[in-house]
C-alpha cells in the first residue's frame, strides 16, 4: 500500500523481541511511512536496552521504561530498587513513557496484589517524572480505573492495545485517556473493538503494532514489525470513513501530544 503523506508513529513495540537488526527494522519502518517508533521495556533489563537503542539510533526512536504486570519477580524481590532504577532511566531525554505497566486478571501470572503494588508505584513515577503512563489492562478495567483515581491519574495516560468495551471506552474518553489500537483491530472477530474505534473522539486515537506480537490480518502467525503499522491505520481510517492521509495527521498530532515527542 502507498504510505500516508504524514509519517505514522508506532506508539508501542518491543524491539528487544524482534529477531532482526534494530537499525534495519527502523529503516524498513521509515520506508513504509512509519517514522516514529516507541520501544517499550518490560522489566529493567529490557528498559535499559530500549534507552540505549533510543540514544544510539536517535531520530524517531524513543523509549518507555517499566515492569510488566505478568513479570514482577524483580519488583517483588526489591520494589524500591526497581523503581529507583526506572526513575534514573526515566530522566533520560529520549524516554517518553513509564510502562508497560498495569493490571492483568486474564493471564494472572502475578498475584493481583503484587500487580497493583507495582502499578501504583509506576503511576506515581509517571506523575513524578511527567512521562506518559503506558497501561496494559486485561479483564481488570473497573479495578484499574479505581486504582488510578486512588493513586492520582497522571496528566497523560495511554491505554495500550485497547481491549475494553464501549462502556470502558467512554470512561477512558471522559478522563482524556488516549486509546491505542493494534493489529487485532483488523481481525475478523473484533467487531466490538471496531465499534469502539468508530466511536472514540479523534483526538484520543493512537495506533501501534505491539510488535512482534499481534500481526495484522494477512500476516497473522508471522512476526509483526513496525513497517506493518499502515495496515492497521488503513483499517482504522476505513472504519471512521476518513481518508488515510487525514487520519495520519490526527494520529501523528495525538502521538506528539501524548508522548511530548520532539
Task: Summarize the structure in short.
By secondary structure, this protein is an alpha/beta fold. It has helices at residues 22-31, 44-57, 73-77, 79-90, 112-129, 141-151, 166-174, 191-199, 229-239, 244-259; strands at residues 8-13, 34-40, 61-65, 95-104, 132-138, 157-159, 178-181, 205-207.
SSE order and pairing:
Elements (H helix, E strand, L loop, with lengths): L7 E6 L8 H10 L2 E7 L3 H14 L3 E5 L7 H5 L1 H12 L4 E10 L7 H18 L2 E7 L2 H11 L5 E3 L6 H9 L3 E4 L9 H9 L5 E3 L21 H11 L4 H16 L3
Parallel strand pairs: 1-2, 2-3, 3-4, 4-5, 5-6, 6-7, 7-8
Helix pairs in contact: 2-4, 4-5
Describe this structure in words.
The protein has 262 residues and is α/β, with parallel strands linked by helices. It has one domain (8-259): TIM Barrel (Alpha-Beta Barrel), CATH 3.20.20.140. The protein contains 10 helices and 8 strands. The chain has an 8-stranded parallel beta sheet. The longest helix has 18 residues, at 112-129. The chain starts with 7 loop residues before the first strand and ends with a helix.
Please tag this protein with its features.
8-stranded parallel beta sheet, 262 residues, alpha/beta, TIM Barrel
Amino acid at each position: 500500500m502507498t504510505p500516508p503523506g504524514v509519517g505514522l508513529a508506532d506508539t508501542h513495540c518491543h524491539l528487544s523481541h524482534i529477531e532482526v537488526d534494530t537499525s534495519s527494522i527502523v529503516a524498513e519502518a521509515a520506508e513504509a511511512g512509519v517514522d516514529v517508533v516507541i520501544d517499550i521495556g518490560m522489566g529493567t533489563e529490557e528498559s535499559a536496552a530500549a534507552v540505549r537503542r533510543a540514544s544510539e539510533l536517535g531520530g524517531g526512536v524513543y523509549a518507555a521504561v517499566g515492569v510488566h504486570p505478568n513479570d514482577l519477580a524483580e519488583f517483588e524481590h526489591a520494589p524500591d530498587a526497581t523503581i529507583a532504577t526506572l526513575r534514573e532511566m526515566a530522566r533520560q531525554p529520549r524516554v517518553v513513557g513509564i510502562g508497560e505497566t498495569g493490571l492483568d486478571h486474564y493471564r494472572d501470572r502475578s498475584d493481583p496484589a503484587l500487580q497493583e503494588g507495582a502499578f501504583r508505584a509506576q503511576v506515581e513515577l509517571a506523575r513524578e517524572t511527567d512521562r506518559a503512563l503506558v497501561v496494559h489492562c486485561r479483564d481488570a478495567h473497573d479495578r484499574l480505573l479505581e486504582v488510578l483515581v486512588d493513586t492520582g491519574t497522571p496528566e497523560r495516560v495511554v491505554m495500550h492495545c485497547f481491549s475494553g468495551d464501549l462502556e470502558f471506552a467512554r470512561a477512558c474518553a471522559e478522563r482524556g485517556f488516549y486509546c491505542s489500537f493494534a493489529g487485532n483491530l483488523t481481525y475478523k472477530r473484533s467487531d466490538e473493538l471496531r465499534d469502539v474505534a468508530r466511536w472514540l473522539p479523534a483526538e484520543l486515537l493512537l495506533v501501534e503494532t505491539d510488535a512482534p506480537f499481534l500481526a495484522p490480518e494477512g500476516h497473522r502467525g508471522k512476526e509483526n514489525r513496525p513497517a506493518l503499522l499502515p495496515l492497521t491505520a488503513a483499517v482504522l481510517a476505513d472504519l471512521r470513513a476518513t481518508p488515510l492521509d487525514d487520519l495520519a495527521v490526527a494520529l501523528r498530532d495525538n502521538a506528539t501530544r501524548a508522548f511530548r515527542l520532539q
